[in-house]
Design brief:
The complex is a heterodimer. Chain A is an alpha/beta fold. Chain A has 20 helices and eleven strands. In chain A, the strands form two sheets. Chain A has an eight-stranded mixed β-sheet with strand order 2-1-3-7-8-9-10-11, sandwiched between helices. A three-stranded antiparallel β-sheet of chain A has the order 4-5-6. Chain B is mainly alpha-helical. Chain B folds into two domains: 29 residues, no CATH class; 66 residues. In chain B, 50% of the residues lie in helices and 8% in strands. Chain B has six helices and two strands. Chain B has a two-stranded parallel sheet with strand order 1-2. The chains are: A alpha/beta, B mainly alpha. At the A-B interface, β4, α6, α11 and α12 of A face α2, α4 and α6 of B.
């Protein structure tokens, strides 16, 4: 009997979750729902909202599949190839440090952004139809998150999610708010009057029971950010001192929050100081609480909104500068074999150049770089490397560079003898000088555990 | 005449076989004027080029503080500077919880477990 009731309940429930739209929709505009954590009620309500908007609906991942960055891009590409645009996208699931995931896989916000850009790269007119994103997971739409979406996809006029924990996907709030926002999106974006906008937001069911956050950009360019806590006096940089999280509905005037003009001078000051450490003009300061490198880091964290994309003030790079000694230790561990091979090549080249010199071959340029004592930079256990400053390391890279790029080095007799030197030069440039965050993970490289090699992501 | 043509042909082949000379210049300092070295043989990249950032993906400091507060860790993170807070947060996100607990003996294990649960999402 229990089994029978269960089966009936499941049938009723699954029927309730399968929505059928009984009106004609524009097949070229699609609301995409990415279900990372099996949320049928949210999916159902999103489909209902798409129907009410007169738009098509697509749920991802397809039945029996899981979602990841590659699958998402593949599915979006199919839409782009069919000349269909994504008007709104909902990503639903648990949020783990910016990654929305669950039983069906997961994607992070950058993967969503990149998938959209890549799928529609040849069809920018369709990409510009992408007007709203709903990140239905915890901590997905604080002011800084909004700013990332705005910067990356400027066509977005509405970004919604939760600035704190989100409701469970089985609660009415999770799907009713989603439905209402999808349906009311057009009127919210068109509404430039704050009072009227507040009224529309207030009419969203259950919104006050959650930590929902909604950002809108009106047609006139005015931007508003709403969340259900805070005092509304949010101007300037968000710090714990000026951001009061007392309860109550409020609007943040987003136009004020991201005025970075005032910070421009300080950004420049920090950038110039960082360059000095970076190029070894100034020795790296001791790693203590007063370290200027730490201050640069704190500054860039609180001004991330004001920094250009790919700015030198990259948190990962600054972090690795602070822990430069550990980075060097890790380098020695990771490139232990290459270090040995480089030493062997130096030794071999020493004999070789002597022989050629004796025969009067034109080796001057090469020898200029290959002076006695230079090879002492490397030692069997790389201990000497660990004692070197950034300035020394930069010098060493240019020295290796000079050797491997000499015309003599093109001589086939030489080429085979310079393999490790070339590799060492590349490794030092990427992992010791550039501190390239594409190649080395800050978390892995910032501390050294003897015997453990942090992964290297770039070939040398 | 044939000999001259043959020699000319060989000479051209040698020129073609010569590796194209390219110089790659990357200035990390955007202030450096690279216009003076403008040439088809010089490929110049000004600035740092495309780079990813783990730090950029973190919640902003205010939001992060709220997350620590939710895990009842406000007192524990108070003495930490922003970078150390970020490292703690990243470790909880990316690493095995047992190793994180070992790295932070000053923080009660249950609090770190709680933080992990909160970050992994309770939605």
């Amino acid at each position: 009997m229990k089994n029978f009731i269960f089966i009936v309940t499941m049938i009723v429930a699954s029927n309730a979750w399968s929505y059928k739209c009984n009106r004609s929709v524009n097949p070229k505009k699609v609301v995409v729902f990415v279900d990372a954590n099996k949320s049928p009620m949210e999916s159902n309500d999103a489909e209902r909202a798409a129907c009410e908007r007169g738009e098509a609906f697509k749920k991802l991942p397809p039945e029996g599949q899981s979602i990841d960055a590659a699958n998402l891009e593949k599915e979006l590409k199919k839409l782009a190839d069919a000349n269909k645009s994504v008007s709104s996208m909902v990503i639903s699931g648990h949020d783990g440090g910016g990654n929305i995931h669950g039983a069906n896989g997961g994607v992070d916000k950058y993967e969503v952004i990149n998938a959209m850009k890549s799928a529609y790269k040849t069809k920018p007119h369709l990409l510009s139809d992408f007007k709203s994103v709903f990140m239905w997971g915890c901590w997905t739409m604080g002011p800084s998150e909004v700013d990332i979406w705005r910067k990356e996809l400027p066509s977005l006029k509405m970004c919604s999610g939760f600035f704190d924990m989100g409701p469970l996907n089985t609660t009415a709030a999770s799907h009713a708010i989603l439905h209402d926002l999808l349906v009311k999106e057009k009127s919210m974006v068109e509404e430039a009057d704050q009072k009227k906008l507040k009224r529309i937001v207030a009419s969203v069911q259950h919104i006050n029971q959650t930590y929902a956050a909604v950002y809108t950009e009106a047609a006139c360019g005015d931007m508003y950010y709403y969340n259900t806590q805070g005092d509304g006096d949010y101007t300037g940089e968000p710090t714990t001192d000026n951001l009061n999280y007392s309860a109550g509905n409020h609007f943040l005037d987003f136009n004020k929050n991201f005025d970075c003009k005032g910070a421009a001078e300080d950004i420049e000051k920090n950038r110039k100081l960082l360059i000095k450490y970076y190029y070894g003009e100034l020795p790296l300061p001791p790693n203590n609480a007063q370290s200027p490198v730490l201050k640069i880091y704190s500054f860039l964290r609180s001004h991330s909104k004001c920094l250009k994309e790919n700015h030198l003030l990259n948190g990962d790079r600054v972090g690795m500068l602070r822990f430069y000694d550990s980075v060097k230790d890790n380098f020695a561990e990771v490139f232990k074999e290459l270090n040995q091979a480089t030493l062997a090549e130096f030794k071999h080249l020493d004999n070789f150049t002597q022989k050629y010199k004796a025969k009067g071959k034109p080796m001057q340029d090469f020898i200029k770089y290959f002076q006695a004592g230079k090879s002492a930079f490397f030692s069997a256990d790389a201990a000497t490397l660990k004692t070197k400053s950034r300035k020394d390391i930069i010098k060493m890279i240019s020295y290796l560079d000079g050797m491997v790029k000499q015309p003599m080095a093109r001589d086939p007799k030489f080429t085979s003898k310079l393999k490790s030197l070339k590799k060492m030069r590349n490794a030092m440039e990427t992992y010791l000088f550039q501190l390239n965050p594409n190649c080395m993970d800050f978390l892995d490289w910032h501390e050294h555990t003897p015997g453990w090699k942090p992964p290297t992501r770039c070939p040398i | 005449m044939k000999l001259i043509l043959c020699l000319l042909f060989l000479a051209t082949q040698n020129v073609l076989a010569e590796e194209e000379f390219k110089v790659f210049v990357n200035t990390f300092d955007e202030d450096i004027d690279t216009s003076v070295i403008k040439s088809p043989a010089v490929k110049t990249t000004v600035g740092v080029g495309q780079s990813t950032s783990q730090v950029e993906k973190l919640p902003d400091p205010v939001e992060m503080e709220k997350i620590f507060k939710s895990a009842d860790m406000s007192d524990e993170v108070k003495p930490l500077n922003q970078m150390d807070r970020d490292i703690l947060f990243m470790k909880v996100v990316k690493r095995d919880l047992a190793s994180v607990k070992k790295s932070y003996p000053q923080i009660a294990g249950e609090k770190l477990t709680n933080l992990k649960k909160i970050i992994d999402g309770q939605k």
